[in-house]
Amino acid sequence: MHKARPTIGPVLNPFASIARRWTPTPRVLRRAALAAVVMSVVIVVTGGAVRLTGSGLGCDTWPKCTDDSLIVTSAQGFHGAIEFGNRMLTYVLCAAVGWAILAARSAKPWRRSLTKLGWTQFFVVMGNAVLGGITVWLGLNPYSVAAHFLLATSLITVTTVTWVRAGEGDGAPRPRVPGPVRKLGWALAGTSFVLIAAGTVVTGSGPHAGDSSDVPRMPFDWATTAHVHAIAAWLVCALAVAMWLVLKVVDAPDDTRARARDLLVVLLAQGAIGYVQFFTKLPEVLVAAHMLGSCLVWIAVLRVVLGLRERPVATAGIPAQSDPALSAAH
Description:
Layout: H1 14-21, H2 26-52, H3 77-106, H4 112-137, H5 142-166, E1 174-175, H6 179-205, H7 222-249, H8 254-279, H9 284-306, E2 309-310, H10 324-329
Antiparallel strand pairs: 1-2
Helix pairs in contact: 1-3, 2-3, 2-5, 2-9, 3-4, 4-5, 5-6, 5-9, 6-7, 6-9, 7-8, 8-9
């Protein structure tokens, strides 16, 4: 007579196991997503501090800090401490991203789209960590430094989208404004990205190489690239003003118009910092403030674009209804 084999239940991964025992409130979910946004900005600003203090090669190899030590040594002094401290912040960033993933996975019902966005954040962080290591191996090559910053901007993009989505439902997106206004939003986003990319060229051809004067720079005239960057900035400002006015004309929802107003405020502050730093020969403090402003401008742009549509809470058996007039405009 054969004995009955014991039934083995499904093997749960740690996230699924925690999700069975914990259900975050919507506020906790949104705070977890916001924490990832904040840390993605912090890592950019501290990375700028590494460059502005000339500490880019404070740890002269990667993933170790020296050939013989995984951590910074006293021989590397101040610059080594700054560079190694920035590397350690990557773990804090990973913790924030992990919290966002866990909160999305534990929500009831499971926020699958947010979980996927969270894992996208994680892989972008890992990719940028590797790119940062390659940048060290290349002796702070300005092109790899620029790519490092742009990938960090991609992380800000994903974390911001996750944060906004955490306050919405998972239903199909519905337009809140007519189609031409949404096209204006995409033009604003595209131009803003060009502005950020042009900023990396200004940085790559400018005086703050990140370590010593021996670090190569991009072969462009710094003043000319700065003027091109300024032209792109004025174009972004024009589009932002146009967006703010159009949203008033089409009587867009109050929160959408508020986001457009916030963008104008951030752009005004960023423009003021940009011109002051240009005429004062790029003091380090203002360059750091301008890097922070770049992050805040991009976040504000994304919030405007995402505010042009909404995602209702999905209801089983009841398809999301959209405004016929808006659908026609789409």
